Amino acid sequence: MRIPALVLIACAAGSCTTGPQQPVQLTPHEQAELARLTEGKVAGPPTSCLQHYNSNDMITVNESTVAFRQGRGRVWLNNMQGGCPNLRPPYALLTRQYGSAQLCRGDIAQVIDTSRASPLVAACSAISFLTRSRATATDQRLKSASRRSP
Hints:
Layout: H1 2-16, H2 28-38, E1 41-47, E2 49-51, E3 58-60, E4 65-70, E5 74-79, E6 91-95, E7 102-104, E8 108-113, E9 120-125, E10 129-134, H3 137-148
Antiparallel strand pairs: 1-10, 2-7, 3-4, 4-5, 5-10, 6-8, 8-9
């Protein structure tokens, strides 16, 4: 009985290790959705956490990519580590904050079925949030100046 328990522990520990994340292949529809969300926005630095009030407007691009919108001017993109199976309607992403009001890198999120008594469908982990913000006039001048410079 001790051997099977050790095998299970070893398998569980092995599943927590991560190698390089493979790029996600997007369908044409997913590419169009991502382009629509980031249109007119410039990339900012990645951030490890997202304030909970910025996570209210979530858009699911696919099972690996979710976007959190703040108005029309800013969007945070998050590629869930290893994907998040069944992250599409009619399921919802449930996150819990412990000790802070943020969704952070490494936090465990659950995919739930809101119509069932036993709602858990899957669990996944968030990675860094990539910020895209509406380009300002200064951003546009810097961009055009950098194109003219040899």
